[in-house]
């Protein structure tokens, strides 16, 4: 590192640089400038950097007055601006609330945690200074007020993202999840009890619906009441994509239970709409009962397509996954063993119980294990008598690993392999949910108590994942070249941590202060190069 003295008009100024050779050419990295010093003072500083003037340990020796995290915040912030996220938030990017919103979006990816904890990091990170806030951060002004402005822009922002990532005739991936709450949320219309997909019983929750592009890039999110059922959100989402976002021709991909028979009857005549979904177990059994399909049609190696004669526009793609078959078989055997022990415990009781009491106890067992369809039972003389229905169990075993993808996409647009592959892309939405619930983004715990702030918090998490998705696309080379098992080194979290160790320091030399960014090491520079970011 050295100081170059340059002249502009009649004034001198210093440029702190690192010089290096790259591909046979001399390159420079500029770390900062020193202004308002005389030529003689600049010469002394130049000599001080060379170590020619001051004695080590003396009062005149260079001192580091301040050190802040810089690399991760700067890299993610630059990526956000390169992707036009600041312009998507609001056209006047110079407004402070826009910068504050970017700070929360980037901060969620780099630090997670609450808005208060992010505001209190102003002494430790350059993030807020990169967003135009010098000194102490006021959480009320720079976070909560900015959130209120950002929430008002959610519809316009999501419309812009949809225009970038969705095209006429493209897939639209949609799925929902739930996120539970702890504490009291009195007066909330969102936070309520419902079916919890995380298995967190006894907790109120919200339901989150996420729209993604065919590649899994998030373009829209909505928060529903905690007792919202999957299927009830589908019609609204289709209307949102076609009318609000202006994407008239879409292939809507939803999980089983979303495009139900009732929903399909409502949407089948919508112009420009086709759907891809999966049949529920009950629907597969119904097709078997009607002899539209047979068990031996399910094959591990080849997809068999069947058309329902009563619904000629519907295509059924029959598949079988052997690994899923093994997993389902093990799960059922485990639950049957639990059921056996619990029901035997009731049946072997020496005490006579009223029939109503025994029925209540049996109902709790079968409700817990979900094995009611495999059990025949009755109460005789105050005792339980029961047995497994072997015919039902055998019939269920034949369906292990079997699934059916259904669609009304015309054959000339998609063959059966493309339809199945399109449905499997819902795994990208599930991956998005895992990231939203991970340590990196932490959609929960939710510290906000008003519904609009809760919605905006989820929206900020989605925008953070939008940045993470783009970062992962650029870092694919790094992840694909990584080792396996114990030799694996790179994760997204590790990338962020390596960038965090690039520091910005305030250096004092001879009473003059300047800011210097530490030189990235080989790994850090490789990450920055892949992200196409230059410090």
Sequence-ordered SSE layout with sheet pairings:
Layout: E1 2-8, E2 11-22, E3 25-34, H1 39-50, E4 63-69, H2 71-82, H3 85-89, H4 96-110, H5 115-119, H6 127-130, H7 139-152, H8 154-165, E5 170-180, E6 205-212, E7 218-225, H9 234-244, E8 250-254, H10 261-267, E9 273-278, H11 281-289, E10 304-308, E11 311-320, H12 322-347, H13 355-369, E12 375-380, E13 383-388, H14 390-398, E14 402-407, H15 416-424, H16 426-436, H17 451-474, H18 476-480, H19 492-500, E15 503-509, E16 512-517, H20 522-531
Parallel strand pairs: 5-8, 8-9
Antiparallel strand pairs: 1-2, 2-3, 4-15, 5-6, 6-7, 9-14, 10-11, 11-14, 12-13, 15-16
Helix pairs in contact: 2-4, 2-19, 4-7, 4-17, 7-17, 12-13
Describe the structure.
By secondary structure, this protein is an alpha+beta fold. The protein folds into four domains: 2-64 and 506-531, no CATH class; 65-138 and 148-152 and 475-505, no CATH class; 154-280 and 406-472, 2-Layer Sandwich (Nucleotidyltransferase, domain 5); 323-398. It is built from 20 helices and 16 strands. It has helices spanning 39-50, 71-82, 85-89, 96-110, 115-119, 127-130, 139-152, 154-165, 234-244, 261-267, 281-289, 322-347, 355-369, 390-398, 416-424, 426-436, 451-474, 476-480, 492-500, 522-531, and strands at residues 2-8, 11-22, 25-34, 63-69, 170-180, 205-212, 218-225, 250-254, 273-278, 304-308, 311-320, 375-380, 383-388, 402-407, 503-509, 512-517. An eight-stranded mixed β-sheet has the order 7-6-5-8-9-14-11-10, sandwiched between helices.
